[in-house]
Each structure stands twice: as C-alpha cells, then as structure tokens.
Amino acid sequence: MTATQNFRIAAIPADGVGLEVVEAGRAVLDSLAGSSGGRFTFEWKDFPWGSEYYAEHGKMMADDGLEELKTFDAIYFGAVGWPTVPDHVSLWGLRLKICQGFDQWANVRPVEFLPGIVSPLRKADDTDQNWVVVRENSEGEYAGIGGRNLSARGEGGEVAIQSALFTEVGCERIMRFAFDLARTRAKKKVSSVTKSNAQQYGMVLWDDVFKKVAADYPDIETESVLVDAMAAKFVLHPEDLSVVVASNLNADILSDLGSALAGSLGLAASANLNPAKTYPSMFEPVHGSAPDIAGEGTANPLATLLSVAMMLRDGLDRPLQGLRGRPARDPVMALRMFLGRDPVALLAELLLLLLCLLVVLRGRSLRRGLGVDSHGVDHAVGADLPGQLLQSLDGILGVEVDRLGALALRHLEARRNRIDREDAARASKHRARDRELPYRPAAEDRHRIAVDDLRE
Ligand code: GGG
Hints:
By secondary structure, this protein is α/β, with parallel strands linked by helices. 46% of the residues lie in helices and 18% in strands. The site of glycylglycylglycine has 9 residues, from helix 4 and strand 12.
C-alpha cells in the first residue's frame, strides 16, 4: 500500500465572486481526494485577506503573509478588487505582492474554445483552434517602478512616472518557457508580441532576446507581431496561433480578448508559476471579483475549476512524479501512456463533471457562459432561472463530455499522425527506389493529407 501524500493548499478567496468560485474548486479537490483510495489528501488553510481585511487592518494581507504562504504546496486564489479600496492598492497589496514575492514569473493562460460555448467569432464554428498566452509575470510594465511628485505645485501641477522594466534574464526565461511549451503542442509555433516600433528600448531588447532564444529552437516556427496587429490577428486569424508570448501588460490585455473570443471570461483559467519551484505557484481564474453579481451565487465556477485542473497538472506534480517512477507494466502508468496524459488529471475532470451536476441538481444557479469581471465586462444575466439551470446542465455536460471526446480524438490523431509519418517515410523509400513511377497516394491517404493540411 502506497503512503498517503498530503498536499497543503493555501486558499485566498479574497473579494467578491472569488469567495464563491474558490468554494466550488475546493469541493472538487476534496471529492478527488476522497476517491483517490487514500493515495492523497488536501489540507486547506483559509486566509481571510482581501478588501474586507483591508477595512479592518489597513492592509490587504498580513505583514508576515508571504512567510506563512511559502510553506504551502500551492496557492488557490479567487479574485481581488472591491469598490471600497482603490484598485491599485488592492492589486499591489495582494495578487501582485504574491506573484512578485514568489517569483511566479510565468503566467499561463490557455484560450480554449469549448464545444457547447458560443463564440462571437464566426470562424470558431468551422475552424479548430486553441492557443496559450504566456504572460511575463514579474516585470515589464507591472514592475512597479516609478512615482508621483511635485504635488506642491498645486492642482494640475503633479507629475507621474511609470517605468517598464525589461531584463535579459526576465525576457529569456519566459521565452524559453514559451518555446518549451510549443514543443509539447501539435502546432509548433511561438508568436512574440512586441511594440518595438514605439518602445525603442525595452521592446527592442525583448525582440533581440527573442531572436537569440529562437535560434536554439530551430524546430519551432516563429513570428514577431506588434501588439496592435496581434489584437487583430486574435480576431481574424486565430487558427495561426499556438503559443503567444508577451510582456505583462500586453498579455494581460490579450488574454482577456482571447477569453472573450472563446465565449466568456467565466471560463478562462490561469496558473502563476514559479517554474523553479522555489516558492509555491498560484492558480486562479482570469476573471476579477465582479462586484455587481457577488453574493448572488450565480458566478460561473468553471474558470476556477479549470484552474484546479492546472494546479493538479502543473502545481502539484509530486503525485505525478510518483507515477513516473513506476515501471511501465504498472496499470496506472500504462493507462497514462495510452491516454497520453495523466489519469489523475483525467479523474479530476470526471469528478469536476460530477460535481457540476450535483451543484446544479442542488438548485444552485450556474449560468453557462456568464462572464465575470470586476470591470463589468460581458455579464450575461437572464431572467428565466429554471430554464437557465436546464441550460447549464446541458451546457456543462456537453462541454465535459465533448472535452473527454476531444481528448480521445487528440490521442487517436497523434497515433494516426505517427502512423502517417511512418507511411510517408516508407513511401519516400519506395520513391527513391522507383524514381520513374509517379507516386499517387491511395484514396485514404489523400483524405488524411487533406485533414493534416487543414490542421496546419
Ligand atoms: N483572479 C484574477 C484577478 O483577481 N484579477 C484582478 C486584476 O485586475 N488583475 C490584474 C492582473 O492580472 O495583473
């Protein structure tokens, strides 16, 4: 019998709908642990930090907060921002303090078009697409360098400087991260987002480092696109994207655009990673605290639940390391090899589906496609609650079943591509031998070639 592994998670629901969605994710993890046959447990500690804490203590988190947090395996975060506290105070006092304090320099924000979710992009109906925004999360425009001065000049006389910080180390590590990620994807491409025509210091350094790093990855296609052109490309040619690496501000904006194009901010997950694992990583929905719907119990928890899945995949890889160490004849390992992914993550997705079902059946209203954002973006509020519940059930089941289906298809496609490559190698051997004979692929092969062309 394997020893139980205990994972210590720091929960910081913080503000607004953060409280509701973190509760949902926690229930998923607890039920996952409950059905792990004693292999692992989650031990939670709740931190009451956020805007209410600020009202009482004049700060967003305890002074020794980082000291305490660093002992945890992962941080599970909700959302920050509330009308009673200036946004820059709440953001810097909590989320950015943790990201910078724990050197969580890679913020991974997948843009996934889920079946059953309506995208405002017409193209999404007939083109298969998904991409990942890799956000530099420790410096750039959010380095926090600058100041305000000269207020003694009186009204209208004050000045402010907000500097962006670009370091070679910071650019290089996020770009290598993006290239390594691209190597794991079907479409092996990295798009760098720049603005070096106007920002001739920081962004030119960014471009130079990109060229240098790209030279180490000759197998990966690259492009460098101005941020304004990239915003248009998200809408017009998203099928040409795979991994998009961008500075802190540019990626912050583009990932919201990506989520909105995928159908809702209420579905976008994110991971703030410390890849060296010197401090815990932090997982959170991309969306904000949505004060206008907070407390109603109507926020869509899927973004948070998908962030839980990222936590299992990227943040708590100790159980996976346990699996990696086992011999290949182990059935769990064999299943993992067969699926091309980890069964723990798969189990989490299945449980997530069950939990959603239970939550809906218990009468809690989850509105499919509901965007939640503290700045009031994309809120879809309907009046017909029973109708919405039915729709949610339908939508959630549709999404999850299709996700699993898509997973199986991806696996089959990968196998088929491998067979295709082997076929192609054999065919080229034949061609070399029978140079005079024209090569005509069989009808079945022609179909496969056409499908592959579409995919690329
Ligand atoms: N859960 C994400 C969240 O609370 N976001 C609030 C926000 O305004 N974040 C700005 C940022 O991502 O830097």
